Every structure is written in C-alpha cells, then in structure tokens.
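2024-03-11 09:14:02 DEBUG pipeline.ingest accepted 1 chain
2024-03-11 09:14:02 DEBUG pipeline.ingest length=341
2024-03-11 09:14:03 DEBUG pipeline.predict start
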Amino acid sequence: MEFAFCFEDSVFSESRDRSAGREVSYTAKQCEPQWFSEDLKGDDPTDEHTVLKFRADWLYRQRKFLKAFDEYSSCYELLPAANNGMRRDVQESQARCLIHLERFPEALEIAQALMKGVNNTDHLTVALNLQVTIHNHLGNLKEVVSCLQQLVTLHSFNPHFWISLAESYRSLSFASSHCRNGSVNFSEPSVREHSCVHNSIKTVDTANMIQRHCSKNNTSPSVLECCRNSTQLWIWSCASFIRARILLHFIQPQHASFALDHNLKTQDYIEEQLNQMDLAEESQSLITNVMSEDLLSERIQEEGQIDTKSTLALNTFTMPTDTEFKEKWFKKIQTLLLVHC
C-alpha cells in the first residue's frame, strides 16, 4: 500500500543554531533622570508630544495640576487624529487635573466626549469611572448610581464596583429620607422611628410597615412614596454589599500576600456595614442565595475562579436600562422578602 504523503526537504535539514550571536553584548538605551524637562524642538513631532506627555505625567505626580493640565493640552494639540489610544489617555489626564482643580463642569465635558468615542468595554469603563468621580464631587447621586450600574453590568464579578454601588444606594436612601416639603421630615419622631432611620431594620416587611403607619397617621401620598423609595434603596444597598462579600469570598483562594490582606480587610468592612444596617440574618441568607445564583454554573465551579475584567467590542454588548438592571438583580429579592414574611 502506498501513501501519498510528501515531506519538504526542510523537515530533514539541520536545525538552526540558536546559540549563534549570544556572545554579542546588548546595551540598552538609557535616559537621564527627568530627560523630559529640557525643551526639545526637533523635526519629528513625535518626539515633542512624547516629551510633553512625560513632563505632564511628572507634574501630575508632583501634584502641580495646573501646569500638568497645560502640558497635557499642548500634547493633545500635537497628537495626530489616528493616535486614538494616546489621545484618550491624554484627555482622561486632562479631566483628572481639572477634578483636582475643582473645575468639575469642564472635567465633565471631557468625560462626556470620551463616552462618545468608545469602541470597546475598556474605553467605556474608563469613561464611566471618570464620570463617577466627577458626579461624586458635584453631589449628583442619581448620576453616580446610573454610572455604577453600568460598570456593574460591564464587570458583574468585580466586588469593588458592587461596594461603590451599595454605598451610593445607601447615600441616595438617606437623601430620600431627609427630603422635606411634602416628604419625610426628621422633626417628626414617629416617622423618623418607623421609616427614616434604617439602622434598626429587623423586618423584611418594612415597606408594608411604613405603609400601615403612614396610612394610620394620614400621611400624604408624597411622603409615603418617599418612604417606599428610601426603603427600596436600602434593600438594594444591602443586596449589593452582600454580592460584593460573596465575590470577595469566592476569589479569596486566588489571593496571597498583600492581595489577600486587602481582600480580608474589605470583607471586614462589608461586615461592619451590614452590622450597622442591622438586616435580619434570615433576610441576609435569602439575599445571599439570590445574589450568588450566577456563580453556581458548572464552568465557574470547575475552574474555581471568575473573570473580574473583560474587554469586548461594544457591538457585542447591550447596556440594560435602569429598570432592566434593577429587575435583573433586585426584583426577585423584593418578591421573596415579601412572600417570605
């Protein structure tokens, strides 16, 4: 029986001697300390914007934010339109300088411009993180929550985004509880006792309790709605903290040294927050079961790890609406809590 296989002559040739030339020394190019400090006026514009970028980074590290912003701006003007990566990096740096200079509206303009030019989830993550920082400084809690919900959608296995979301929900809950002019007023002891201060939430039927109390005391519909919103936000905050705790515990075996230490300290922080929120153990257990459902897949169980970061083209990704996000993560919890009680 004959085979029609043919082999190239190169298959039988002697292997290349890879040791040749190993004796030749290699001298790496070295730069003098702060080589970028001197003015450089050459024919190559690439050299000039590189110098400006390094100089601006150094000034930023020295916390000379105004000078750094000027250098970043000069660098940006020299960058070619095709160099999208460096242009985005410089724009973000400009916004960070403006944040430190407390020029928040200008920083927000840059952040919104970055949002328009995203083409993958990494770009979107950077732009959203920037907006979270700016809106936090401006006190725009609703915008902060919106951006964090998008970040959680992009990175649903990242515990730190969940912690930030939990803290923002809690802040928004307090803001809702403090509202006046037809809403909750802290000067009313009975309302404060039953709805505004959530440190003593022991029942999962808080919303019904508030409704009964407000109806009994002829509370206006606007106050009742404020109480419901505040309670709802509080539950979402608890759920987000619990989700973060689950994720940190899940990735704990992968950590060692300072990473493990940071993980454990963060878990302690979450425990402290949940203790202050005083949610009943039975309710915590129920929320834990719901918020860990997506971690029970066979693939994750077999690999024993989760991907806390992924880069995808945006044409393969659909961002849910605010309603869709809350229905996905919290609707089942609220339903089960009410049924359970």
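2024-03-11 09:14:41 DEBUG pipeline.report Residues 117 and 123 are 8 Å apart (CA to CA).
2024-03-11 09:14:41 DEBUG pipeline.predict end
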